[in-house]
Task: inverse folding
């Protein structure tokens, strides 16, 4: 009987461990091709597919926690979520917490975008005082001095899709977008309607980080992300949504 009970306990513990989810934080400001939401639940997108594949290869079910951007770091610090992706390490230089970082997984430029092409790159410092389309709570280090000096003004929208919608509708002359979002947005437009990148503001090398918690398989998660990158799986996911060759990540 003792052996039977012991075996049942082991089976029960194994089942509990197998059912423990890997909890990913998802900003509610993401839009396609990063993430699509249906009734506030992630359903597809580059980062949805990456997270789902990562959890599957690690051997845990994926659980998505959709949060406002201002709540994300608190949730990580309090252990409410386990993994955050599509983030730059310098964004957290002043944040508490014990984390381990993946290798860089993506390279994304922040672009100044307009409805009209430019024969030469535009210097934002040369622009007349005007609103620039931006995403609420997003940081734009190269433009921040101009915002602080009131030479340019943020015109925030809830997500990148809405920023580009406003630009296309003529609400602004310029907006900021990452390359993926611009490519995705332009896919549905005729060539003469497509938005144009007129300057590169900065280049971001983004990855994922994991809470250093003994209950989490931290090294297995990081090792899996490295294999997904070096094998080309992550680039294949990106191509599925935006086509072409993703920009190399050194």
Result:
């Amino acid at each position: 009987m003792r052996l039977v009970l012991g075996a049942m306990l082991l089976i029960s513990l194994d089942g509990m461990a197998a059912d423990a989810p890997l909890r990913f934080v998802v900003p509610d400001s993401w839009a396609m091709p990063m993430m699509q939401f249906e009734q506030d639940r992630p359903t597809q997108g580059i980062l949805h597919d990456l997270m789902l594949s990562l959890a599957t290869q690690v051997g845990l079910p994926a659980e998505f926690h959709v949060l406002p951007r201002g709540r994300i770091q608190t949730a990580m610090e309090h252990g409410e979520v386990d993994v955050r992706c599509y983030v730059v390490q310098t964004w957290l230089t002043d944040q508490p917490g014990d984390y381990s970082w993946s290798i860089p997984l993506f390279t994304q430029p922040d672009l100044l975008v307009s409805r009209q092409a430019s024969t030469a790159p535009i210097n934002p410092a040369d622009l007349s005082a005007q609103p620039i389309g931006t995403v609420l709570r997003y940081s734009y280090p190269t433009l921040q001095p101009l915002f602080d000096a009131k030479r340019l003004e943020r015109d925030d929208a809830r997500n990148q899709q809405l920023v580009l919608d406003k630009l296309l509708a003529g609400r602004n002359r310029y907006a900021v977008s990452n390359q993926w979002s611009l490519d995705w947005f332009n896919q549905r437009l005729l060539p003469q309607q497509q938005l144009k990148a007129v300057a590169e503001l900065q280049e971001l090398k983004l990855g994922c980080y994991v809470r250093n918690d003994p209950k989490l398989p931290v090294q297995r998660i990081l090792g899996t992300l490295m294999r997904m990158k070096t094998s080309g799986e992550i680039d294949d996911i990106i191509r599925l949504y935006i086509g072409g060759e993703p920009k190399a990540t050194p």
About this structure: The chain is about 35% helix and 30% strand. The longest strand covers residues 196-211.
